[in-house]
Amino acid sequence: MTVSGSGAKEAAGSALVAGSGWEYAPAPESREIVSIASEYGLFVDGRFGPASKGRTFATINPATEEPLAKVAMAGPADVDRAVAAARRAFDQVWGSMPGAERAKYLYRIARILQERSREFAVLESIDNGKPIKETRDVDIPLAAAHFFYYAGWADKLGYAGFGPNPQPLGVAGQVIPWNFPLLMAAWKLAPALAAGNTCVLKPAETTPLSALLLAEVCQQAELPPGVVNVLTGAGDTGAALVAHPGISKVAFTGSTEVGIAIAQAMAGTGKKLTLELGGKAANVVFDDAPIEQAIEGIVNGIFFNQGHVCCAGSRLLVQESVADHVVDRLKQRLTTLRLGDPLDKNTDIGAINSRPQLDKITELSAAGEAEGAQRWSPPCELPGKGFWFAPTVFTGVSQSHRIAREEIFGPVLSVLTFRTPEEAVTKANNTPYGLSAGVWTEKGSRILWMAQKMRGGGGGANTYNRLDPASRFGGYRESGFGRGGGRHGLGAYLDV
Ligand code: NAI
Ligand code: MG
Fold first, then answer.
1. Bridging pattern class, strands 66-72 and 56-61
2. Less CB within 10 Å around the terminal CB: N or C of the chain?
3. Residue 380 structural domain
4. What 3-state class would DSSP assign to 197?
């Protein structure tokens, strides 16, 4: 972020603040490492081709609003074709292939992802708006890690705790969001393929390019045609896919609203369903916590990936006795974050993914002010073009405020306070969601006590937003049901 001197110094008191007196030189990653085609087709039965009606949509770079490519928009006839290809591949090749053979393909995909990681990192940053630092260090390595991890399970399904010979379900229809495009694709595809299913994947309309490059990787790995199909398009395409009678399993990650619509559409069909939806996680800081570490955890919890994270620590619950100190230190830390060009290796905060998402963040933040919370952002110049939102902290938030209840899915933190551990638990659980949580304290016994009381599918103790293919992930209540990751993630794709 370009920090203008006096404001930053004021916010920081007498502390030395990086950025207030000096600036990093630009360190842009090269765009040339990836070639973006002007048009992309659907990936069906091992080949790229246009949508049957010839319809297309544009994907843009949200940091500049520059159009990147025209992408095929799949309609019902394309869904039919893709599901038929996936069914054929399941019946004739993949479903009956020995697990040790399937594993070889998954290892191959994982290795190619590593080899081409720089290309993927740049492409993901351009299409999504997230900083290259994150795509390079998180999204792409974790996507490869998911393929490696599940490749290891493919020949050991009989030892996964689902009986001696668990069977795949058939064709999986998978609809994913835009916040971690490649990682979500890997998260969905790797366990499904390891378990012996074939897949039709529908990436989000604002971020289709990395899934299409992954389709190219499937070709490069000589994955049999039809095992993975990628249908680009918007909500209509997703709706046609999940409603298709030829699929046996639906996996969806996205908004609670669409998750509910999918659950209703699928009721009574007998298809297996997992939903990974929104969240409003509490990050709870006790007075005995290592405060400087907690500050890093709070920043990582809500400002990582511009806050476009379903398990983001969007509600900071801080013990009253240390609240002023924590908020002061947090504000000082935020003045050092750099917002700007996502391809610059020094950038901490990139662009908001889309205009509608920016509008939603803007609207909810305005509601925070109107309802009486105090709004603060570090001095921060926003680029003139593209979709941007300064890191924002609300203090004086009460539980009834919309910014304490609704998922903002942006770089906006709501700070609430508590006095006793019981009050912390009551407030943490006072949400329709239940996806994740964080606890910061020196006491191990308190961590275990909190872990038992808080309603969430996962969480971190003295850490936040750590993701690993071996650990399970999922929610309660309006955060959805079913578990991804680890051994549990296999169960979602087996007939158990
Ligand atoms: P969305 O739920 O509409 O989109 C997610 C995916 O579902 C996209 O691929 C979309 O094309 C597809 N989709 C949309 N309507 C569908 C339908 N009727 N049937 C099947 N597929 C459908 O989410 P959107 O509009 O992009 O974001 C809205 C809000 O949702 C965000 O502000 C955020 O609060 C939340 N969200 C949560 C995510 C998470 O990881 N839990 C991810 C993305 C959004
Ligand atoms: Mg885009």
1. antiparallel
2. C
3. 282-461
4. coil
Q: What is the distance between the alpha carbons of residues 244 and 175, in angstroms, rounded to a whole number?
A: 13
Ligand number nearest to the C-alpha of 128: 2
Ligand 1 atom closest to 309 (CA): 40
Find out whether 349 and 335 touch, Cβ atoms under 8 Å: no
Q: Give the strand order in the sheet containing 436-440.
A: 374-376, 392-395, 412-418, 315-319, 282-285, 436-440, 458-461
pLDDT band per the 50, 70, 90 thresholds, residue 178: very high
Contact present, 189 and 174 (Cβ < 8 Å): yes
Mutation pick for ligand 1 pocket among 258, 353, 402 (CB with most ligand atoms within 8 Å): 258
Verify whether ligand 1 is closer than 6 Å to residue 187 (CB atom): no
192 lines ligand 1 (CB under 6 A): no
465 CB near ligand 1 (under 6 Å)? no
Confidence of residue 10 (pLDDT cuts 50, 70, 90): very low
Whether residue 108 contacts residue 97, with contact meaning beta carbons closer than 8 Å, is answered with no
SS (H, E, C) 82-130: HHHHHHHHHHHHHCCCCHHHHHHHHHHHHHHHHHCHHHHHHHHHHHHCC
Would 389 be classed as within a structural domain? yes
pTM, full prediction = 0.94
Q: Are residues 296 and 270 in the same domain?
A: no
For residues 462 and 136, give the distance between their C-alpha atoms in angstroms, rounded to a whole number: 24
Long-range contacts of 13-18 (CB under 8 A, 24+ apart): 13/328, 13/332, 15/332, 17/332, 17/335, 17/336, 18/336
Residue 221 neighbours by CB under 8 Å, 6+ apart? 105, 108, 109, 112
- 277 ligand 1 Cβ < 6 A: yes
Tell me, yes or no, whether 89 and 232 share the same domain: yes
In the reported structure, the alpha carbon of residue 177 is separated from the centroid of ligand 1 by a whole-number distance in angstroms of 6
Please state the separation of Cα 107 from the chain's center in Å: 23
Query: How confident is the prediction for the chain on average, in pLDDT?
Result: 94
Residues 6+ apart with CB under 8 A from 10: none
How many Å lie between the centroid of ligand 2 and the Cα of residue 354? 8
Same domain, 380 and 486: no
Q: Residues 293, 203: one domain?
A: no
Give per-residue pLDDT as tens, 255-312. Answer: 999 999 999 999 999 999 999 998 999 999 999 999 999 999 999 999 999 999 999 9
The reply to whether 374 and 235 lie within a common domain is no
User: 357 and 263, same structural domain?
Assistant: no
Domain tally for the chain? 2
The alpha carbon of 277 and the centre of ligand 1 are apart by a number of angstroms equal to 9
The minimum-distance atom of ligand 1 relative to the CA of 175 is 9
Catalytic residues: 276, 310
Contact 439, 459 (CB under 8 A): yes
Pair (325, 439) in one structural domain: yes
Amino acid symbol at 398: S
Evaluate: CB of 177 within 6 angstroms of ligand 1: yes
